[in-house]
Design a protein that fits this description.
The protein is mostly beta strands and 289 residues long. Helix content is 1%, strand content 58%. The chain has one helix and 20 strands. The strands form five sheets. Strands 1, 3, 5, 9, 11 and 12 form a six-stranded mixed sheet that branches. Strands 16-15-18-19-20 form a five-stranded antiparallel sheet, with no helix packed on it. Strand 15 and strand 16 form a beta hairpin. The chain is elongated, with a radius of gyration of 25 Å. The protein starts with 5 loop residues before the first helix and ends with a strand.
Length: 289
């Protein structure tokens, strides 16, 4: 069937929305300093500096939410927003000023964060995430003169989110380690490591893992950073092992590289040793005491 008159009939511009999301520091077109806000109970307020490096104005809106960060040994980072009403959330107490504003090209703007917790909360560390979304806009809307052609215009929404941390009283942290299982996966061996934070604050640390063969030779080693806000299973990947018995030693220390180090709460190291028995594609795991 021929439809020769379809294109001339389209007389309005088609606007295709495109939404791009990035974690703090990963997108160059909207940035926030610092990349986390830590508020003490004696302070109850903080601020961030938002930068619009574009040559166009940008409308910035804010949103406060609670999401749990989850990462793995490959460096992948994800967020879980399904934990409603979590005891670690301070999202209901956080107010942001201004809530929405317009930034001129190549300008900076301070955003103030106020936290008003209930008096009844216990000592500990509480979390929320602040999303800042920027929508570049034109100063003057353009009028398309050629109405016989399909035109497209892409509106790009640039968003990032940063952690907001509220701390009250004495903070204690720790981590329990438990290997739940292991299996081959994509020419690798994936160990499912159960992480359970203890105390009243979030655990931020580094896992140091070593696999030793029965003859004492070291066959694998890894060092990965992680955050445990709630209990979860951490995927820990190693090279594929030949059949035999091995010892997997895991130690977690409250040390972090980069700017994340400022948020670390110190705790004694946690350790665990596990026996891996590899028989073809089957891998058995047993804790060593």
């Amino acid at each position: 069937m021929r439809m020769p008159h379809i294109l001339p009939a389209l007389r309005s511009t088609i606007v295709l929305p495109l939404f791009l999301f990035a974690t703090a520091g990963l997108h160059a077109q909207i940035s926030v300093t610092p990349t986390r806000v830590i508020v003490e109970s004696s302070q109850r307020s903080g601020e961030v500096l938002v930068l619009n490096p574009l040559d166009r104005p940008m409308v910035v809106s804010t949103r406060v939410m609670f999401m749990v960060l989850r990462n793995d040994s490959t460096g992948a980072i994800g967020y879980d927003s399904t934990l409603r009403g979590n005891a670690r959330s301070c999202a209901p107490w956080v107010k942001v000023f201004p809530h929405q504003f317009t930034m001129e090209p190549n300008t900076r703007r301070k955003v103030r964060i106020m936290i008003s917790p209930p008096d009844s909360i216990q000592d500990g560390e509480y979390m929320a995430r602040l999303e800042l979304a920027g929508l570049p806009v034109d100063r003057v809307a353009t009028v398309e003169l050629d109405t016989t052609t399909v035109h497209t215009k892409v509106n790009v929404r640039l968003a990032l989110n940063i952690p907001v941390v509220y701390r009250k009283g004495k903070l204690i942290t720790g981590i329990d380690l438990n290997v739940i299982g292991a299996r081959p996966l994509n020419n690798r061996m994936r160990v499912s490591l159960g992480l359970t934070p203890t105390g009243n604050s979030i655990y931020r640390g580094t896992l140091f893992s070593t696999i030793i063969a029965a003859d004492g030779a070291q066959v694998a080693r890894s060092e990965t950073q992680f955050v445990a806000e709630v209990p979860y299973i951490y995927p820990l990947d190693f090279p594929t092992l030949a059949p035999g018995q091995y010892t997997l030693s895991i130690e977690s220390r409250t040390v972090r590289q980069g700017t994340a180090g400022e948020a670390v709460i110190a705790a004694p190291p946690s350790r665990g040793e596990f026996r891996l028995t590899v028989d073809g594609s089957a891998i058995e795991v047993a804790a060593l005491h």
